[in-house]
Structure formats: C-alpha cells, structure tokens
Amino acid sequence: MPCGRRRCRGKEYSCSMELSLAVIGGKWKPLILWHLRDVPTLRFSALRRTMPTITQKMLTQQLRELESDGMISRTVFAEVPPRVEYGLTDSGRDIIPILEALCRFGRQFEARFGVEPAEAPAPRPVEPAPDELEEALVARQLAAR
Asked: Taking Cα atoms as reference points, which of 3, 7, 51, 52 lies closest to residue 29?
C-alpha cells in the first residue's frame, strides 16, 4: 500500500512498521506479552512480580493499552474475593515469534559483547493493585446484596 497517513483502531501511521511499534513498542509492552506467552493467564500481581522495576501505574497503563489494541484479554471474575486475569489473544500470540527473534538477537549481542553482573533492583513495596482494589469494591457490593 502506498505511503500516506492512515488510521487503525485510533492510531495514525504512515507505514505498517509505525503501526506495529504503536501497538507493541516501548519498554514494557513486549515484556508483558513475553511473560504471558507460556501461561494461559496471569493475575496483575503475578505479572508485576515478573518485572520488578515497573511501577503499578505503568503496568496498569500498559495493560489497558494492550487490551484496547486487542493484544491481551482481561477477565474479571465476580468471586469473593474477586480476581482479574490477563491472557494473550490470537493477535497477542501472533507477535510471539517476533519477540522470540528479538530474544535471540539479545543472546547473540551478549555473546558478542559480553555480560557483566548488575546490581539487583531494590524490591518495591507491594501496594494493592488497582484491579485488586476494584475487586475488593466489587466483593463488598456483592456481599452487601
């Protein structure tokens, strides 16, 4: 398709690469998708533990964007206590071979240039996730009925 500004799911772009980067680009989105690749679903807190340096706010924002773009699904269970789980959609699974290629590149880069130990990030205090706060509110409403 010839170049020119287009729009898909609210994202403006000139070429397919620009659209791809708008959907999965950035520091966190590929990692979120990567950590969801081998499991049917993960809860917010489990996903956050896989990325110790991400903030709760950033993870929430990135999950919402990935859900809006159809890359992940969000399932809310009306249980007491309620829970929210995230999983890959078919579109999310389609990106995994590309992420695997990026991982191979990272290993080759390490082999070529060497690896040094790094200090582990300081553990963050665990705050209730927004989904968990929402779950607690839903649980109270259900219990009040």
From this structure: 51
1-25 burial, b for 16+ CB within 10 Å, e for fewer? Answer: eeeeeeeeeeeebeeeeebeebbbe
User: Within 10 A of 32 (CB to CB), how many other CB atoms are there?
Assistant: 25
Q: What is the pTM of this model?
A: 0.79
In the chain, beta strands by DSSP E: 6-8, 11-13, 42-43, 72-77, 83-88
Reported as a single tens digit per residue, the pLDDT across 119-129 is: 876 666 666 66
Whether residue 126 contacts residue 45, with contact meaning beta carbons closer than 8 Å, is answered with yes
Dist. CA 14–CA 5, nearest whole Å = 5
